[in-house]
Amino acid sequence: MTPVLSVSGLSKRYGDFQALKDVSLEVAAGELVAVLGPSGSGKSTLFRCISGLTEPDSGLIELDGTAVCGPGGDMLRQARGRIGVVFQQFNLVGRRSAIGNVMTAALPELPIWRVATGIYPVVMMDKAEAALASVGLTEQRDQRADTLSGGQQQRVAIARALMQDSRILLADEPVASLDPDTARLVLALMHELARSRGLGILCTLHQPELAAEFADRTMVMRNGRLAS
Ligand SMILES: Nc1ncnc2c1ncn2[C@@H]1O[C@H](COP(=O)(O)OP(=O)(O)OP(=O)(O)O)[C@@H](O)[C@H]1O
Ligand SMILES: [Mg+2]
Fold first, then answer.
1. How far is CA 190 from CA 4, 22, 46, 147, 203, in A?
2. Residue whose CA is closest, atom 27 of ligand 1?
3. Is the CB of 48 under 6 A from ligand 1?
């Protein structure tokens, strides 16, 4: 089966510093792959190259078998829009409600008057509510994001990614700001969403024991090189 994400021969240097060296990996639908590795080893750089925030020097990145970067492949904005991203800092709009934050994933598709008035199409509201329900936050629908707990905020961020119809979710240290119990809850949820939605998840973690418990596979980044 075609992997949802395939990276081959990815390299990136910053000046004289080689941050990524010939990195290759694949993530299949329904699979949660963990990336461990010391601070500065290149994990976030890899994620930024995949999500399009950083331009790699060489290498090929394919989503569902379509090149989004590399020889013969342009940066396809549409394809990139289907990559869901979750970070350590939840990147929510604090004064917006939980549902309002989930809706932000759909804003680029909407005319400006809808964004300005907050009058959204019913199908989109339904989809946002379904996304919130799938992360267990129906009750917190109208609560301001900055009053939610850390774990709830991260679940809103995951729901926002689901709203994009992502095939692949990049989660860079999604549980680093959470206490151990909440971290386990969020990872269990991510693992379950991978299974139930056929989502491929690439996730950096700092604790090997969490990777062992929740990841289907674990890779290790060292000095810009990725090993299984
Ligand atoms: N824009 C940049 N300019 C110069 N060097 C950079 C830049 N971004 C990252 N680096 C360097 O690349 C290396 C890899 O950084 P990266 O953020 O990918 O590490 P990481 O594995 O995510 O670390 P951490 O676990 O601390 O998050 C580091 O040495 C970093 O200083
Ligand atoms: Mg990092």
1. 16, 28, 20, 22, 10
2. 39
3. no
HSE-CB at 202 with a 13 A cutoff on CA atoms is 26
- Tokens linked to 31: 């699979």
Q: What is the pTM of this model?
A: 0.90
One-letter amino acid for residue 36 of the chain: L
Residue 172 phi, psi (nearest 5): -95, 105
pLDDT digits (tens, 9 = 90+) for 202-219: 999 999 999 999 999 999
What kind and span of H or E run contains 218? strand 217-222
The one-letter amino acid at 218: T
* Ligand 1 within 6 A of CB of 44: yes
- Do 147 and 175 meet the contact criterion of CB atoms below 8 Å apart? no
Grouping H, G, I as helix, E, B as strand and the rest as coil, residue 9 is strand
Q: Is the CB of 140 under 6 A from ligand 1?
A: no
CA angle 113, 96, 156 (to 5 degrees): 115
Q: b/e map of 56-86 (b: 16 or more CB within 10 Å)?
A: beebbbbbbeebbbbeeeeeeeebbebbbbb
Q: Is it the case that residue 83 has pLDDT exceeding 60?
A: yes
